[in-house]
Amino acid sequence: MVDEKAINDAKERFGDLVRRQLERVEGLKEQGAPVDYSKLDKLIIGVCGGDGIGPYICASAQRVMEFLLADKLKAGKAEIRQIDGLTIERRAEVMKAIPDDTLEELKKCHVILKGPTTTPAKGDPWPNIESANVAMRKELDLFANVRPVSVPELGIDWTFFRENTEGSYALGSDGFFVSDDLAMDFCVATVQGTERILRAGFDHARKTGKNYVSVIVKANIIKDYPEVKHDVWFVDITTAKLIDPARRSDFKVFVLPNLYGDIITDEAAQIQGGVGTAGSANVGSRYAMFEAIHGSAPRMVTEGRAQYADPCSMIKAVAMMMNHIGESEKGRKLEMALDICTQFEKKLVMTGRNTGATGDEFADYIMETMQRPDLEKVWQGYVDAAIAKAKN
Ligand code: IPM
Ligand code: MG
User: Fold this and answer.
1) Which of 145, 284, 321, 349 could form a disulfide with 141 if both were Cys (CB 3.0 to 4.6 A apart)?
2) Ligand 1 pocket: which of 117, 131, 166, 320 to mutate (most atoms <8 Å of CB)?
3) Is 266 exposed, middle or buried (0-12, 13-18, 19+ CB in 10 A)?
4) Confidence category of residue 214, pLDDT binned at 50, 70, 90
């Protein structure tokens, strides 16, 4: 016997979800032009360390950021604000993914550097609150999650544009049990949401001359970019082709829905050396947030080795921030230094324990490398050698 009451209750809950999403779409239609950060009188940068290893690697990355922006900070053209309250303890205390006062502080910033935050799972000692990452992406409407991966010796130079506010994440915490036996979850797609992530990917391809976009969803705005080559891929074969040496270096820019983007970018980062090497930019038209693509590794803290956590993902996020705020020269220098220190020269190595460097030592190494007068030449030399080696 089908439980009619369960069906009616579910209809009511579903109706509420539909109403909220229809309201959200109306908001999407009214979006203004994106902020040009390079034109602001004063750029406000919020820094929230998060929890687990977050505060450690974020502090190392902040040192690099302060080094790069020293002139701007001194001249009062940039200000850094420390924003607390994103720890799992505080989030559990107020039972919110982002405490209200923290969100208010975040909204007063232009850009945010954010350390990893613990996402509780069922069975954890923490209450099952929504992920702070996902909440921040939705609250600040950071619709494009941009994740670059490059491995010069494999000919890999990919940029992923992961949709960041819809898909399986839009109602990720609103799925429900219809009956004791049946649970339902929801996936959301809007025309506006799909179009803006596609435009972000195609604009990037056009601007950088990376003239090839692989779309892991179908949509028809691509006619606006006649000069950009594009094709459509299913996600399963994409996971295979990323590890196909004969094919993978052809890919340049990817546009993917939220969950596919989550999975595929971890795979791509692994090819580059692991998730610890990858940073990401979460970009909206008003705010932007820069973070690692990995989690908070609480075990490293309980085992007393958090200072040995690798800050490179967060430092990479700083480079992406520089590019975003109109300091692309600084961003480029930092990216070259990161390549030299982590992929080529490797004078210091991170092992995650006291057999390797601390995060701060590694940050020093990167800052010293950035100041080398022959940085560009050294970097180019290493890249050319790596490419030549790969050809042999
Ligand atoms: C990421 C992470 C998050 C996600 C988690 C922590 C919710 O894996 O940023 O890729 O799934 O988006
Ligand atoms: Mg992920």
Assistant:
1) 284
2) 131
3) middle
4) very high
